[in-house]
Design brief:
The chain is of the alpha/beta class and about 400 residues long. The chain is built from 14 helices and 15 strands. Helix 3 (about 70-75) links the parallel strand 3 (about 55-60) and strand 4 (about 85-90). The two termini are about 35 Å apart.
């Protein structure tokens, strides 16, 4: 925790009573560098004086002239690198939506409090504040070109990491999801969100998927030979499903590797399924006929989830992490989680909870009767060589705690 006198706090609220109340609470908690404003325009003027720019803003949402969400937009324009704490009389769903908006703009949000805020609640949330490192300004994400990615695929710079999936009831490790990484010769490990879209935009996704699948199948065979029975999942891009030849390609690759189709799962992100389903429908149905398992990923984040479940022969539904993490303590998320879980049970599918980040998530998923759990609480993605030792460690820990 930083020195309390080092935090420059701004309280922005149109009610003079709330300004006085919050100011007094902050003073009682030991925060001495506190300023107050009753409108957004006056608050923004502080940013013209660098020494007065706040590290933390206690923000009301419903204000005349400039509301809290409009104020957040102005913060983005001014490249604000401090933190926000929402203190509002708005309901829980409105505050959650405002938090999500601010975080989408890459602004740190410590949380929200309902009026009238308690001193204890205020102290707990402000206690999360940490000063941004002066030596590490917010870095711009590097954009990679098509030629660089094409060379990386050809040179074998793509490597697979594997994130374990475990049965929620027994803790048994039943499979892994394959997650590609780019071992860049200069930049080190590059994550897929920095290059998958480049591959899709420049016609490289088939070559990339071929490399990922080839490596995953070779690894699945090694695990099989070592007596390790795992279902290995590989993500497919919708662009892979544009050519009818893709099904034959996957079938041939598995046969060449000596891997049974029923030990491989192909994950399709539901939010990117095409409007014209004819070719994807043929490819996915043929793969299912060949006994490959099909999984619908990120369920609930697209516009036509129910239609995809109706039309495509999926075996597994992965409940998106945005509906899993924290659902135990969030009525809205809990309702969405339960709805997705109920659907999988009615359709006879396996359910996977993504984003199981902590003990509370794990307990919630198990208590709700979800089949499979995946997330950082279980394990982070790891190189294939690390998996056997991790499995032994996980099984010992699970046995000890149950």
């Amino acid at each position: 925790m930083e020195n309390k006198s080092a935090i420059n706090i701004l309280v922005l609220d149109d009610e003079s009573f709330m300004l006085k109340l919050l100011g007094r609470m902050l003073a009682n908690l030991g925060y001495t560098a506190v300023s107050t404003c009753d409108n957004g325009h006056a608050a923004l003027a502080l940013f013209d004086r660098p020494n007065d720019s706040p590290n933390l803003i206690l923000l009301d949402l419903n204000m005349p002239e400039m509301d809290g969400l409009e104020f957040v937009r102005h913060l983005v324009e001014r490249h604000y690198i401090g933190s926000l704490l929402l203190v509002s009389g708005e309901d829980e769903r409105m505050q959650q939506a405002a938090e999500k908006l601010a975080r989408a703009h890459k602004i740190t949000v410590l949380g929200h409090l309902h009026k009238p805020a308690s001193a204890q609640g205020l102290a707990e949330l402000i206690g999360k504040w940490a000063a941004p490192s002066k030596n590490e300004p917010r870095a711009q994400r590097k954009v990679y070109g098509a030629d660089e990615l094409r060379a990386a695929i050809a040179n074998g710079e793509l490597v697979n990491y594997y994130q374990p999936k475990v049965r929620a009831d027994s803790g048994r490790v039943m499979g892994v999801e394959t997650l590609v990484r780019w071992r860049h010769p200069q930049d080190g490990m590059v994550f897929p969100d920095q290059f998958i879209s480049v591959a899709e935009a420049h016609g490289l996704i088939d070559n990339l998927t071929r490399a990922v699948l080839t490596n995953a199948l070779a690894q699945a065979k090694l695990w099989q030979n070592a007596g390790l029975t795992l279902i290995v999942a590989v993500n497919l891009s919708m662009d892979n499903l544009a050519s009818p030849d893709f099904a034959d390609f996957v079938v041939g690759l598995a046969a060449k590797a000596g891997v049974l189709p029923q030990t491989m799962a192909l994950e399709v992100t539901e939010s990117r399924l095409m409007e014209d389903l004819r070719i994807p429908l043929e490819i996915l149905t043929r793969l299912r006929l060949k006994r490959f398992l099909l999984s619908i990923d990120d369920f609930g984040t697209g516009n036509s989830s129910m239609a995809q479940l109706r039309d495509l022969p999926f075996d597994e539904l992965k409940i998106d992490q945005s509906f899993v993490h924290g659902a135990w303590n969030n009525e809205k998320l809990r309702a969405m989680f339960d709805s997705s879980l109920g659907l999988t049970k009615q359709l006879g599918m396996e359910s996977v909870a993504e984003g199981v980040e902590d003990q509370a998530d794990w307990d919630f998923v198990r208590q709700r009767g979800c089949d499979i759990a995946q997330g950082y609480f279980v394990a982070r993605p790891m190189p294939a060589a690390d998996l056997p030792a991790w499995i032994q460690s996980w099984q010992r820990g699970f046995a000890a705690s149950n």
